[in-house]
Amino acid sequence: MNDRSPPRRPATFRLDDPGVVVTEADETARLGRGTIQITPESDPSLLPVPIEAALPVRRGFRWGALFWSGVAGLTLLGVGLGVVRLIEDLFARSESLGFVGLALAFVTALALAVVIGREAVGLARLATIEKLHQRAAAVLASDDRKESRAIVQDLVKIAHQNPQLARARAALESHAGEIIDGADMIRLAERELMTPLDTEARRLVSVAAQRVSIVTAVSPRALIDVMFVLVASLKLIRQLARLYGGRPGALGMIRLLRHVIAHLAITGGMAASDSLVQQMLGHGIAAKLSQRLGEGMLNGLLTARLGLAAIDVTRPLPFAALPQPKLSDLATDLLRKKEDEA
Hints:
Membrane topology: Multi-pass membrane protein
Protein name: YcjF family protein
Distance between the termini: 52 Å
InterPro entries: DUF697 (IPR021147), UPF0283 (IPR006507)
Keywords: Cell inner membrane, Cell membrane, Membrane, Transmembrane, Transmembrane helix
Number of strands: 2
Number of helices: 10
Radius of gyration: 30 Å
Helix content: 55-70%
Organism: Bradyrhizobium sp. LLZ17
Order of helices and strands: EEHHHHHHHHHH
Structural class: mainly alpha
C-alpha cells in the first residue's frame, strides 16, 4: 500500500471564490475538502536585515598605553645613558677605544632605525591589505562603482610588485572599462589577480601540511613535534602574507598570528569539530593507519586548517567569484600519502 497521496490535478480559481482561504506560513489550520489554501510569500523589503554587532568603543584615557610608553621611554633613556657612559670611559682609557665605541654605537643606532622603519612599513602594508579586504566586502554589498574602481587601482599597485601577475594586470586593465557594476568589477579583479595566487597558496598549505604530517609521524619526542609545528606554521603564515602582497616583520608576524587565531576562534576552532575530521575518525580511516601515522595525519590537517585561516586573513579580496578552498580539498592528497606510507 502506498502512503503517499495521489498528485493533485491543476485547477483554476478566482481570488473572490469562497473556497479560497488565505493563511500565514506558520498556520496549520485544517481545511475542508475542496478548499484551496493560499500562503503569500514574504516581502523581501520587510525581511529583517542582519546587522553586524558593532565592537565596543573604548572611551576614556588609556592608562595601559601610557604605562607601556613610559616603560619604553625609561628603557631607552637607560640604555642611552649606559652607552654614553661606556663611550666616555673608553675615551678616558684610550682615545682609539673611544672612537671604536662611538663607531659601534653609531652602527647600532643606524641598524635599529632601519629595523624600526621596516617594521613600520610592514605594519602599514598589512593594515592597507586589511582595509582593502574590508572595502571590497563593502562594495560587494553596496555595488558602488566609484569605490570599486578605487579598490582595483590600489590592488593593481600592490600587484605591480609581483612579476607573475603582469598578464593578469593587463587583462584586468583591458576589461575594466567594460564593467559597469561595482560588484562585478571586484569579481573581475578577483578572477584575474587572485586565481594564480590562490593556486600557489593552496600548494604552499598542502606542502606544509604534508611536511608536518611526515615529521610528526617519525619524530620520537612530543616536544620536537610541538616545536616543528610551531615553526612550520609561522613559516607558512609568512609565505602566505608575502604571496598576497604583505611584508610582515617581527611585529607584523605577531599581528598576523593574532588575527589568524581570532579567525580560527570565530570559524569554529582548530578544526576539532570539522566534518572531515569527524568522518575520518568516525569511519575508522585513521584506525587503518598506525598510531604515529594517525597522529601525523591529524597534525597535518590542523596545519592545513591554520593555513586556510591565514589565507582568509592575508588575502586582499574576499572570496566572491572564486570558490573558497576547503579542508576537504587539501586532505585528499594528505590521506592518500599517509595510506601509501602505512
